């Protein structure tokens, strides 16, 4: 649901990245932040997940919402 909302709000298909990474994203908001701190340039799955987390945080900050509590 979050991915569709982001696509509508930002008027592009960036929600696709969130849908692609959804099964790999942790459910705990603190773990989402921990995920951003991980470094591994050879892990594409990690890169996709980090991109999805950044998009969630960006969209949340645009609309002054705490999107980390109910991002899924």
Explain this structure.
- The chain is an all-alpha fold.
- It has helices at residues 2-10, 15-21, 29-36, 44-62.
- It is globular and about 30 Å long.
- The termini are close together.
- The mean pLDDT is 75.
Features:
single chain, 4 helices, globular, about 70 residues, mainly alpha
The domain count comes to 1
Structural class: mainly alpha
Low-pLDDT ranges: none
Number of helices: 4
Instruction: State which percent range the strand residues make up.
Output: under 5%
- The total beta strand count reads 0
Biggest sheet record: none
Morphology: globular
Instruction: Give Rg in angstroms.
Output: 12 Å
Report the average pLDDT across residues: 75
Oligomer: single chain
Distance between the termini: 7 Å
The succession of helices and strands, N to C, reads: HHHH
Secondary structure: helix percent: 55-70%
Write the layout of secondary structure elements.
Layout: H1 2-10, H2 15-21, H3 29-36, H4 44-62
Helix pairs in contact: 1-2, 2-4, 3-4
InterPro entries: PRD1
Short account of what is shown:
The chain has 72 residues and is mainly α. It has four helices and no strands. It has one domain.
């Amino acid at each position: 649901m979050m991915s569709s909302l982001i696509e509508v709000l930002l008027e592009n298909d960036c929600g696709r990245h969130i849908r692609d990474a959804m099964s790999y994203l942790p459910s705990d908001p603190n773990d989402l932040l921990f995920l951003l701190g991980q470094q591994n340039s050879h892990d594409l799955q990690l890169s996709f997940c980090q991109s999805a987390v950044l998009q969630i945080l960006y969209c949340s900050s645009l609309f002054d919402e705490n999107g980390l509590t109910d991002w899924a």
